[in-house]
Amino acid sequence: MQKQIDIKSLTKEQLKNEILELGEKSFRSDQIYEWIHKKLVLDFDEMTNIKKEFREKCKERFILTNLEAVDVQTSKIDGTKKYLFQLADGNLVESVWMKYKHGNSVCISSQVGCRMGCRFCASTLDGLERNLTPSEMLDQIYKITRLTGERVSNVVVMGTGEPLDNFQNLLVFIQLLTDEYGLHISQRNVTVSTCGIVPKMKELADKKLQITLALSLHGATDEKRRRLMPVAERYTIEQLMEACRYYFEKTGRRITFEYSMVAGINDTSEDAGEIIALAKPLNCHINLIPVNPVAERNFKQPDISFVEGFKNKLEKNRINVTIRREMGRDIDGACGQLRRRHKEEKEETQC
Predict the structure, then answer these.
(1) pTM (predicted TM-score)
(2) What kind and span of H or E run contains 58?
């Protein structure tokens, strides 16, 4: 039997070719594409302007990715919602919906687990299971749009996983997400995070997309980064900064440095001075993030006075800097926490 094709991961042109192969006219592919990517249907039978006989053909030929929300946590503080979605193979991924004055943002996962091993992140504790397909990345947004009944205007690929470790699927996802015949979210409203895979940063730059690239920096020296991020053993600060300059030259888009502040490790005046020296020559923005405590890691948040003092030092040196507003602090906020808790509860019930 022929393997079913993941229809939600097909570009508009690929879908057109598939529909022509089935002996249908090309306008049918436009109708189907709209049903999937604009009307966000869950089943072929919802495509009411497609004749039943052809819908049956589609069911045989294609699989329509449909994630299941198995848990939703809602913050009583700010209304942030954290979703745990189950994939067709039983794996779980997390997504977060955040409501801002400027619009709704969704933070999605790009992998099941992660192999990058960043010390302060719950996502890496069980390693990498597999990459997500473009459709599985998209459907996190589609499901949240349906469940909230509200439009998503900003997308952040900063949940579980390293997006640049799933590079080709990420590119297809961005193409589908920003396509004018789908949700048509502006590329400028898409942020992709990376822990610093230098060759992929340059490859992404060569695509000349208008997305925002966010580099998880977390330390301004190789020594500091190595304490927190195993990837720093492969790529030096110097290589990272060269990749950042290359990205800006190719795209004209300012880099964001994500800087998770860990008490006693990277929150001192000396650290601020090192960040200033690193950031001044670059067109960049620094986002300070008081680290989310993770039970399995012995890292603590700095006192807010330390964070404010750090920010003030950067501002005095004309560095663009913000402190990330904490959203959903009263729910499983850190990446990977909700998924990990569910796995542990399931294992306990099976014992």
Answers:
(1) 0.92
(2) helix 52-61
